[in-house]
Amino acid sequence: MSFDSLGLHAEILRAVLDSGYTEPTPVQARAIPVVLSGRDVLAGAQTGTGKTAAFTLPLLHKLQPYANTSASPARHPVRALILTPTRELCDQVFDSVVTYSKYLPIRATAVFGGVDMKPQTESLRRGSEIVVATPGRLLDHVQGKTINLSQVEMLILDEADRMLDMGFILDIRKILSLLPAHRQTLLFSATFAPEIKKLAEDFMRSPETIEVARRNATNESVEQHIHSAEAGNKRRVLAHLIRHHDMQQVIVFTRTKLMADRLARELKRDGFNCEAIHGDRTQQSRLETLAAFKEGTLRVLVATDVAARGLDVSELPFVVNFEMPTNPEDYVHRIGRTGRAGALGIAISLVSPEEDKSLVLVRKLTNKPLEISEVPGQMEFGRPRERSNGSSAAPTAPREYRESYEPRESREPRAHRESGRRVIEQVETPLVEGRRRNHDAALGGRVAGSVHRFHHGREVVREVPALLLPPRYTVSK
Protein backbone atom coordinates (compact mmCIF):
# COMPACT_ATOMS: atom_id res chain seq x y z
CA MET A 1 0.00 0.00 0.00
CA SER A 2 1.17 3.53 -0.79
CA PHE A 3 0.13 6.91 0.65
CA ASP A 4 -1.42 7.71 -2.73
CA SER A 5 -4.06 5.04 -2.14
CA LEU A 6 -5.26 6.59 1.14
CA GLY A 7 -7.10 9.47 -0.52
CA LEU A 8 -5.13 12.30 1.08
CA HIS A 9 -4.99 15.79 -0.42
CA ALA A 10 -2.25 16.31 -3.04
CA GLU A 11 -0.46 19.02 -1.06
CA ILE A 12 -0.29 16.75 1.98
CA LEU A 13 1.09 13.88 -0.12
CA ARG A 14 3.67 16.27 -1.50
CA ALA A 15 4.85 17.10 2.03
CA VAL A 16 4.93 13.40 2.95
CA LEU A 17 7.08 12.66 -0.08
CA ASP A 18 9.41 15.53 0.85
CA SER A 19 9.90 13.83 4.22
CA GLY A 20 11.07 10.66 2.48
CA TYR A 21 8.05 8.42 3.17
CA THR A 22 6.40 6.36 0.44
CA GLU A 23 4.51 3.63 2.32
CA PRO A 24 2.36 3.99 5.44
CA THR A 25 3.08 2.03 8.60
CA PRO A 26 0.45 -0.50 9.77
CA VAL A 27 -1.19 1.95 12.19
CA GLN A 28 -1.27 4.65 9.49
CA ALA A 29 -2.75 2.27 6.91
CA ARG A 30 -5.52 1.25 9.31
CA ALA A 31 -6.24 4.54 11.08
CA ILE A 32 -6.17 7.11 8.26
CA PRO A 33 -9.15 5.72 6.29
CA VAL A 34 -11.24 5.45 9.47
CA VAL A 35 -10.41 9.02 10.54
CA LEU A 36 -11.25 10.30 7.05
CA SER A 37 -14.65 8.58 7.30
CA GLY A 38 -15.46 10.69 10.36
CA ARG A 39 -15.60 7.92 12.96
CA ASP A 40 -14.07 8.14 16.42
CA VAL A 41 -10.91 6.07 16.80
CA LEU A 42 -9.46 4.24 19.83
CA ALA A 43 -5.97 3.21 18.73
CA GLY A 44 -3.45 1.09 20.59
CA ALA A 45 -0.05 2.05 19.25
CA GLN A 46 3.30 2.40 20.94
CA THR A 47 6.01 4.94 20.36
CA GLY A 48 7.84 4.43 17.09
CA THR A 49 4.89 3.00 15.14
CA GLY A 50 4.20 6.19 13.18
CA LYS A 51 1.13 7.07 15.24
CA THR A 52 1.74 10.85 15.07
CA ALA A 53 1.32 10.88 11.29
CA ALA A 54 -1.62 8.49 11.68
CA PHE A 55 -3.68 11.34 13.11
CA THR A 56 -1.82 14.39 11.74
CA LEU A 57 -2.28 13.53 8.05
CA PRO A 58 -6.05 12.89 8.10
CA LEU A 59 -6.52 15.88 10.42
CA LEU A 60 -4.88 18.18 7.87
CA HIS A 61 -6.92 16.63 5.08
CA LYS A 62 -10.17 17.37 6.91
CA LEU A 63 -9.11 20.95 7.69
CA GLN A 64 -7.96 21.67 4.13
CA PRO A 65 -11.34 23.18 3.09
CA TYR A 66 -10.88 25.80 5.82
CA ALA A 67 -7.38 26.79 4.68
CA ASN A 68 -7.13 30.48 3.82
CA THR A 69 -4.64 33.35 3.72
CA SER A 70 -6.84 35.92 5.43
CA ALA A 71 -5.16 38.06 8.11
CA SER A 72 -8.38 38.18 10.15
CA PRO A 73 -8.26 36.04 13.34
CA ALA A 74 -11.95 35.35 12.87
CA ARG A 75 -11.11 33.32 9.76
CA HIS A 76 -8.78 31.07 11.79
CA PRO A 77 -10.73 29.70 14.79
CA VAL A 78 -9.46 26.65 16.67
CA ARG A 79 -10.90 23.67 14.81
CA ALA A 80 -8.59 20.89 16.07
CA LEU A 81 -7.15 20.34 19.54
CA ILE A 82 -4.32 17.87 20.20
CA LEU A 83 -3.55 17.09 23.86
CA THR A 84 -0.18 15.60 24.87
CA PRO A 85 1.23 14.67 28.29
CA THR A 86 4.62 16.42 28.07
CA ARG A 87 6.25 19.50 26.67
CA GLU A 88 8.63 17.44 24.55
CA LEU A 89 5.85 15.43 22.94
CA CYS A 90 3.85 18.63 22.39
CA ASP A 91 6.81 20.15 20.57
CA GLN A 92 7.30 16.98 18.50
CA VAL A 93 3.66 16.78 17.43
CA PHE A 94 3.68 20.48 16.58
CA ASP A 95 6.74 19.92 14.37
CA SER A 96 4.88 17.12 12.61
CA VAL A 97 1.89 19.39 11.96
CA VAL A 98 4.14 22.12 10.57
CA THR A 99 6.05 19.63 8.40
CA TYR A 100 2.99 18.10 6.75
CA SER A 101 1.07 21.38 6.39
CA LYS A 102 3.86 23.37 4.76
CA TYR A 103 1.99 23.57 1.44
CA LEU A 104 -1.32 24.52 3.07
CA PRO A 105 -2.26 27.95 4.52
CA ILE A 106 -3.19 26.44 7.89
CA ARG A 107 -2.00 27.95 11.17
CA ALA A 108 -0.87 25.98 14.23
CA THR A 109 0.19 26.93 17.75
CA ALA A 110 2.01 24.89 20.43
CA VAL A 111 0.89 25.60 24.00
CA PHE A 112 2.92 24.15 26.89
CA GLY A 113 4.25 25.15 30.30
CA GLY A 114 7.71 26.13 31.43
CA VAL A 115 7.97 29.09 29.04
CA ASP A 116 6.55 32.59 28.86
CA MET A 117 2.84 32.62 27.99
CA LYS A 118 3.03 35.89 26.07
CA PRO A 119 4.23 34.51 22.68
CA GLN A 120 1.60 31.75 22.91
CA THR A 121 -1.10 34.30 23.71
CA GLU A 122 -0.12 36.47 20.75
CA SER A 123 -0.18 33.46 18.42
CA LEU A 124 -3.61 32.38 19.67
CA ARG A 125 -5.02 35.87 19.22
CA ARG A 126 -3.83 35.94 15.60
CA GLY A 127 -5.82 32.76 15.04
CA SER A 128 -4.84 29.07 14.73
CA GLU A 129 -6.81 26.23 13.24
CA ILE A 130 -4.73 23.66 15.15
CA VAL A 131 -3.63 23.91 18.79
CA VAL A 132 -1.23 21.33 20.24
CA ALA A 133 -1.21 21.61 24.03
CA THR A 134 -0.43 20.12 27.40
CA PRO A 135 -3.53 20.07 29.66
CA GLY A 136 -2.28 22.39 32.38
CA ARG A 137 -1.11 25.21 30.14
CA LEU A 138 -4.23 24.95 27.98
CA LEU A 139 -6.41 25.53 31.06
CA ASP A 140 -4.23 28.54 31.92
CA HIS A 141 -5.18 30.05 28.57
CA VAL A 142 -8.83 29.11 29.07
CA GLN A 143 -8.81 30.89 32.41
CA GLY A 144 -7.09 33.88 30.83
CA LYS A 145 -9.71 33.92 28.06
CA THR A 146 -7.00 33.82 25.38
CA ILE A 147 -8.45 30.77 23.63
CA ASN A 148 -11.91 29.86 22.39
CA LEU A 149 -12.72 26.15 22.03
CA SER A 150 -16.34 26.51 20.93
CA GLN A 151 -15.61 25.60 17.28
CA VAL A 152 -13.40 22.56 17.85
CA GLU A 153 -14.38 19.78 15.43
CA MET A 154 -11.61 17.28 16.19
CA LEU A 155 -10.00 16.26 19.49
CA ILE A 156 -6.90 14.05 19.62
CA LEU A 157 -5.53 12.65 22.88
CA ASP A 158 -2.00 11.42 22.23
CA GLU A 159 -0.43 8.95 24.70
CA ALA A 160 -3.58 9.08 26.80
CA ASP A 161 -2.27 6.39 29.15
CA ARG A 162 0.68 8.58 30.07
CA MET A 163 -1.60 11.56 30.70
CA LEU A 164 -3.62 9.49 33.15
CA ASP A 165 -0.43 8.18 34.81
CA MET A 166 0.69 11.77 35.31
CA GLY A 167 -2.57 12.71 37.05
CA PHE A 168 -4.18 14.74 34.25
CA ILE A 169 -7.55 12.99 34.39
CA LEU A 170 -9.38 15.91 36.08
CA ASP A 171 -7.82 18.42 33.68
CA ILE A 172 -8.82 16.26 30.71
CA ARG A 173 -12.40 15.95 31.90
CA LYS A 174 -12.61 19.70 32.42
CA ILE A 175 -11.27 20.36 28.91
CA LEU A 176 -13.71 17.84 27.42
CA SER A 177 -16.58 19.66 29.11
CA LEU A 178 -15.57 22.85 27.28
CA LEU A 179 -15.72 21.29 23.81
CA PRO A 180 -18.72 20.92 21.52
CA ALA A 181 -20.54 17.63 22.08
CA HIS A 182 -20.64 17.00 18.35
CA ARG A 183 -17.03 16.39 17.39
CA GLN A 184 -14.70 13.63 16.23
CA THR A 185 -12.44 12.20 18.95
CA LEU A 186 -9.25 10.21 18.40
CA LEU A 187 -7.54 8.54 21.37
CA PHE A 188 -4.07 7.03 21.00
CA SER A 189 -2.61 4.96 23.82
CA ALA A 190 0.14 2.40 24.25
CA THR A 191 -2.15 0.36 26.51
CA PHE A 192 -5.87 -0.20 26.94
CA ALA A 193 -5.96 0.07 30.73
CA PRO A 194 -9.39 0.13 32.44
CA GLU A 195 -9.11 3.90 32.92
CA ILE A 196 -8.60 4.37 29.17
CA LYS A 197 -11.63 2.25 28.36
CA LYS A 198 -13.71 4.22 30.88
CA LEU A 199 -12.61 7.50 29.29
CA ALA A 200 -13.53 6.17 25.86
CA GLU A 201 -16.96 5.07 27.09
CA ASP A 202 -17.67 8.48 28.60
CA PHE A 203 -16.52 10.76 25.79
CA MET A 204 -16.41 8.81 22.52
CA ARG A 205 -19.16 7.67 20.15
CA SER A 206 -18.87 4.01 19.16
CA PRO A 207 -15.15 4.27 18.39
CA GLU A 208 -13.39 2.02 15.93
CA THR A 209 -10.76 0.09 17.87
CA ILE A 210 -7.41 -0.29 16.16
CA GLU A 211 -4.59 -2.22 17.79
CA VAL A 212 -1.39 -2.79 15.87
CA ALA A 213 0.93 -3.77 18.71
CA ARG A 214 0.29 -5.68 21.90
CA ARG A 215 1.09 -3.87 25.14
CA ASN A 216 3.93 -6.30 25.76
CA ALA A 217 5.37 -6.28 22.24
CA THR A 218 9.04 -5.43 21.87
CA ASN A 219 10.62 -4.53 18.56
CA GLU A 220 12.36 -7.50 16.99
CA SER A 221 14.90 -5.06 15.51
CA VAL A 222 16.23 -4.39 19.01
CA GLU A 223 18.92 -6.62 20.52
CA GLN A 224 18.29 -6.88 24.26
CA HIS A 225 21.20 -7.52 26.62
CA ILE A 226 20.99 -7.96 30.39
CA HIS A 227 24.13 -7.54 32.50
CA SER A 228 24.51 -8.15 36.21
CA ALA A 229 25.94 -5.13 38.06
CA GLU A 230 26.05 -4.17 41.70
CA ALA A 231 24.47 -0.76 42.30
CA GLY A 232 27.82 0.75 43.33
CA ASN A 233 29.54 -0.55 40.19
CA LYS A 234 26.95 0.46 37.61
CA ARG A 235 28.54 3.75 36.65
CA ARG A 236 31.90 2.08 35.92
CA VAL A 237 30.18 -0.66 33.94
CA LEU A 238 28.28 1.96 31.94
CA ALA A 239 31.43 3.93 31.17
CA HIS A 240 33.14 0.73 30.02
CA LEU A 241 30.22 -0.22 27.78
CA ILE A 242 30.07 3.22 26.17
CA ARG A 243 33.75 2.91 25.25
CA HIS A 244 33.60 -0.77 24.31
CA HIS A 245 30.66 -0.31 21.93
CA ASP A 246 31.92 3.11 20.80
CA MET A 247 28.50 4.58 21.55
CA GLN A 248 28.39 7.97 19.84
CA GLN A 249 24.72 8.50 20.65
CA VAL A 250 22.95 6.82 23.58
CA ILE A 251 20.03 7.51 25.88
CA VAL A 252 20.57 6.33 29.45
CA PHE A 253 17.43 5.91 31.56
CA THR A 254 17.15 6.45 35.31
CA ARG A 255 14.13 6.22 37.58
CA THR A 256 14.57 9.55 39.36
CA LYS A 257 15.60 13.12 38.60
CA LEU A 258 18.16 12.99 41.41
CA MET A 259 19.92 9.98 39.88
CA ALA A 260 19.79 11.53 36.40
CA ASP A 261 21.67 14.61 37.62
CA ARG A 262 24.14 12.58 39.65
CA LEU A 263 24.93 10.16 36.82
CA ALA A 264 25.36 13.00 34.32
CA ARG A 265 27.88 14.68 36.62
CA GLU A 266 29.83 11.44 37.08
CA LEU A 267 29.91 10.67 33.36
CA LYS A 268 31.19 14.17 32.68
CA ARG A 269 34.03 13.50 35.13
CA ASP A 270 34.69 10.32 33.16
CA GLY A 271 35.23 12.46 30.08
CA PHE A 272 31.92 11.98 28.29
CA ASN A 273 29.92 14.78 26.67
CA CYS A 274 26.77 14.27 28.71
CA GLU A 275 23.65 16.11 29.90
CA ALA A 276 20.53 15.18 31.85
CA ILE A 277 16.92 16.09 31.12
CA HIS A 278 14.00 15.85 33.52
CA GLY A 279 11.01 17.82 34.73
CA ASP A 280 13.00 20.18 36.97
CA ARG A 281 15.07 21.56 34.10
CA THR A 282 13.86 24.75 32.47
CA GLN A 283 12.06 24.37 29.20
CA GLN A 284 14.75 26.32 27.37
CA SER A 285 17.46 24.07 28.82
CA ARG A 286 15.57 20.93 27.83
CA LEU A 287 14.96 22.10 24.29
CA GLU A 288 18.62 23.06 23.85
CA THR A 289 19.77 19.71 25.26
CA LEU A 290 17.43 17.74 23.01
CA ALA A 291 18.51 19.74 19.97
CA ALA A 292 22.19 19.07 20.72
CA PHE A 293 21.49 15.35 21.13
CA LYS A 294 19.52 15.10 17.90
CA GLU A 295 22.25 16.99 16.03
CA GLY A 296 24.87 14.57 17.36
CA THR A 297 26.90 17.16 19.28
CA LEU A 298 25.83 15.57 22.59
CA ARG A 299 26.99 11.98 23.04
CA VAL A 300 25.13 10.78 26.15
CA LEU A 301 21.64 11.86 27.20
CA VAL A 302 20.56 10.80 30.70
CA ALA A 303 16.78 10.95 31.01
CA THR A 304 13.86 10.05 33.21
CA ASP A 305 10.91 8.26 31.63
CA VAL A 306 8.60 11.26 31.57
CA ALA A 307 11.22 13.66 30.21
CA ALA A 308 12.09 11.31 27.35
CA ARG A 309 8.47 10.78 26.40
CA GLY A 310 8.01 12.07 22.89
CA LEU A 311 11.73 12.22 22.17
CA ASP A 312 12.14 11.00 18.61
CA VAL A 313 15.69 10.46 17.37
CA SER A 314 15.96 8.75 14.02
CA GLU A 315 18.27 5.74 13.91
CA LEU A 316 19.22 5.96 17.60
CA PRO A 317 21.64 3.02 17.96
CA PHE A 318 21.76 2.52 21.75
CA VAL A 319 19.54 2.67 24.83
CA VAL A 320 20.75 1.77 28.32
CA ASN A 321 18.59 1.07 31.35
CA PHE A 322 20.90 2.28 34.11
CA GLU A 323 18.07 1.56 36.54
CA MET A 324 15.28 -0.88 35.81
CA PRO A 325 11.88 0.80 35.62
CA THR A 326 9.33 0.25 38.36
CA ASN A 327 6.61 -0.29 35.75
CA PRO A 328 7.57 -3.11 33.34
CA GLU A 329 5.65 -1.41 30.52
CA ASP A 330 8.12 1.48 30.76
CA TYR A 331 10.80 -1.02 29.77
CA VAL A 332 9.00 -1.54 26.45
CA HIS A 333 8.71 2.22 25.94
CA ARG A 334 12.38 2.78 26.78
CA ILE A 335 13.84 0.23 24.41
CA GLY A 336 11.34 1.37 21.77
CA ARG A 337 13.48 4.50 21.36
CA THR A 338 15.93 2.43 19.30
CA GLY A 339 15.46 0.03 16.41
CA ARG A 340 12.89 2.24 14.67
CA ALA A 341 11.80 2.18 11.05
CA GLY A 342 13.57 -1.13 10.45
CA ALA A 343 16.94 0.08 11.75
CA LEU A 344 18.84 -2.16 14.14
CA GLY A 345 19.21 -1.08 17.77
CA ILE A 346 20.80 -2.33 20.98
CA ALA A 347 19.14 -2.06 24.39
CA ILE A 348 21.30 -2.82 27.44
CA SER A 349 19.99 -3.21 30.98
CA LEU A 350 22.15 -3.13 34.11
CA VAL A 351 20.42 -5.12 36.84
CA SER A 352 21.43 -5.07 40.51
CA PRO A 353 20.31 -7.67 43.10
CA GLU A 354 17.68 -5.20 44.33
CA GLU A 355 16.18 -5.08 40.83
CA ASP A 356 15.74 -8.81 40.33
CA LYS A 357 11.98 -8.53 40.85
CA SER A 358 11.77 -5.83 38.18
CA LEU A 359 13.57 -8.12 35.75
CA VAL A 360 11.13 -10.94 36.52
CA LEU A 361 8.19 -8.62 35.76
CA VAL A 362 9.76 -7.55 32.46
CA ARG A 363 10.32 -11.17 31.46
CA LYS A 364 6.70 -11.95 32.27
CA LEU A 365 5.36 -8.95 30.35
CA THR A 366 7.50 -9.43 27.23
CA ASN A 367 7.41 -13.23 27.36
CA LYS A 368 11.13 -13.30 26.66
CA PRO A 369 13.81 -15.15 28.69
CA LEU A 370 16.21 -12.16 28.80
CA GLU A 371 19.12 -14.22 30.10
CA ILE A 372 21.94 -12.51 31.94
CA SER A 373 25.10 -12.25 29.86
CA GLU A 374 28.71 -11.38 30.60
CA VAL A 375 29.80 -7.78 30.24
CA PRO A 376 31.69 -7.70 26.93
CA GLY A 377 35.31 -6.73 26.68
CA GLN A 378 36.87 -9.38 28.96
CA MET A 379 35.64 -7.50 31.97
CA GLU A 380 33.77 -8.65 35.07
CA PHE A 381 32.27 -6.30 37.62
CA GLY A 382 31.38 -8.51 40.54
CA ARG A 383 30.62 -12.10 41.35
CA PRO A 384 27.91 -14.06 39.57
CA ARG A 385 24.75 -14.46 41.50
CA GLU A 386 21.77 -16.74 41.15
CA ARG A 387 18.73 -15.13 39.62
CA SER A 388 15.06 -15.65 40.19
CA ASN A 389 14.86 -17.79 37.05
CA GLY A 390 17.78 -19.96 38.14
CA SER A 391 20.30 -18.47 35.72
CA SER A 392 23.51 -16.82 36.78
CA ALA A 393 25.99 -14.38 35.42
CA ALA A 394 29.14 -15.51 33.66
CA PRO A 395 32.06 -16.86 35.73
CA THR A 396 34.07 -14.29 37.59
CA ALA A 397 37.31 -13.20 35.94
CA PRO A 398 40.65 -14.10 37.59
CA ARG A 399 41.26 -12.11 40.77
CA GLU A 400 44.42 -10.40 39.53
CA TYR A 401 42.60 -9.27 36.37
CA ARG A 402 39.50 -8.19 38.21
CA GLU A 403 41.38 -6.16 40.82
CA SER A 404 42.85 -3.94 38.13
CA TYR A 405 39.32 -2.58 37.61
CA GLU A 406 38.33 -2.30 41.26
CA PRO A 407 37.64 1.25 42.40
CA ARG A 408 40.35 2.91 44.42
CA GLU A 409 38.33 2.69 47.61
CA SER A 410 38.12 -1.10 47.30
CA ARG A 411 41.94 -1.31 47.22
CA GLU A 412 42.39 0.95 50.28
CA PRO A 413 43.05 -0.73 53.65
CA ARG A 414 39.92 -1.81 55.45
CA ALA A 415 39.17 -2.05 59.13
CA HIS A 416 37.45 -5.33 59.99
CA ARG A 417 34.92 -5.72 62.75
CA GLU A 418 35.56 -8.15 65.58
CA SER A 419 33.23 -8.42 68.55
CA GLY A 420 31.61 -5.16 67.57
CA ARG A 421 34.89 -3.16 67.65
CA ARG A 422 37.34 -2.18 64.96
CA VAL A 423 40.66 -3.91 65.47
CA ILE A 424 43.75 -2.73 63.62
CA GLU A 425 47.05 -4.41 64.32
CA GLN A 426 49.88 -2.09 63.55
CA VAL A 427 53.40 -2.85 62.44
CA GLU A 428 56.08 -0.37 61.55
CA THR A 429 57.13 -0.64 57.98
CA PRO A 430 60.19 1.37 56.91
CA LEU A 431 60.01 2.74 53.43
CA VAL A 432 62.53 0.81 51.42
CA GLU A 433 63.28 -0.01 47.83
CA GLY A 434 61.08 -0.10 44.78
CA ARG A 435 57.72 1.52 44.76
CA ARG A 436 57.94 2.41 48.48
CA ARG A 437 60.41 5.12 47.59
CA ASN A 438 57.59 6.78 45.74
CA HIS A 439 55.53 6.82 48.92
CA ASP A 440 58.50 8.16 50.86
CA ALA A 441 58.92 11.00 48.40
CA ALA A 442 55.25 11.83 48.65
CA LEU A 443 54.79 11.46 52.41
CA GLY A 444 58.30 12.29 53.59
CA GLY A 445 58.73 9.52 56.09
CA ARG A 446 57.54 6.23 57.42
CA VAL A 447 54.05 4.86 57.31
CA ALA A 448 52.20 2.34 59.37
CA GLY A 449 51.04 -0.89 57.83
CA SER A 450 47.91 -2.74 58.90
CA VAL A 451 47.62 -6.51 59.02
CA HIS A 452 44.19 -7.72 57.89
CA ARG A 453 43.17 -11.27 58.76
CA PHE A 454 40.70 -12.61 56.22
CA HIS A 455 38.33 -15.51 56.81
CA HIS A 456 40.64 -17.89 54.92
CA GLY A 457 43.43 -17.27 57.44
CA ARG A 458 45.86 -15.39 55.18
CA GLU A 459 47.45 -12.18 56.36
CA VAL A 460 47.98 -9.38 53.91
CA VAL A 461 50.06 -6.35 54.79
CA ARG A 462 48.81 -3.13 53.31
CA GLU A 463 50.49 0.24 53.57
CA VAL A 464 48.50 3.03 55.15
CA PRO A 465 49.63 6.68 55.12
CA ALA A 466 50.22 7.69 58.72
CA LEU A 467 48.13 10.81 58.31
CA LEU A 468 45.06 8.62 57.79
CA LEU A 469 45.48 6.76 61.11
CA PRO A 470 44.28 7.79 64.61
CA PRO A 471 47.02 9.57 66.65
CA ARG A 472 47.82 6.51 68.76
CA TYR A 473 48.84 4.61 65.61
CA THR A 474 51.05 7.29 64.10
CA VAL A 475 54.61 6.13 63.64
CA SER A 476 57.32 8.68 64.41
CA LYS A 477 60.12 9.21 61.94
Automatic annotation (TrEMBL):
Biased composition range(s): Basic and acidic residues: 399-425
EC numbers on record: 3.6.4.13
Residue ranges of every copy of the DEAD-box RNA helicase Q domain listed in the record: 1-29
Pfam family, one: DEAD
Motif annotated as Q motif, chain positions: 1-29
Domain Helicase ATP-binding stretches: 32-210
GO CC terms, sorted: cytosol
Domain of life: Bacteria
Helicase C-terminal domain location: 236-383
Reactions catalysed, as given in the entry: ATP + H2O = ADP + phosphate + H(+)
GO biological process, one term: ribosome assembly
Homology family: Belongs to the DEAD box helicase family.
Protein name, per record: DEAD-box ATP-dependent RNA helicase RhpA
Organism (species): Chitinimonas taiwanensis DSM 18899
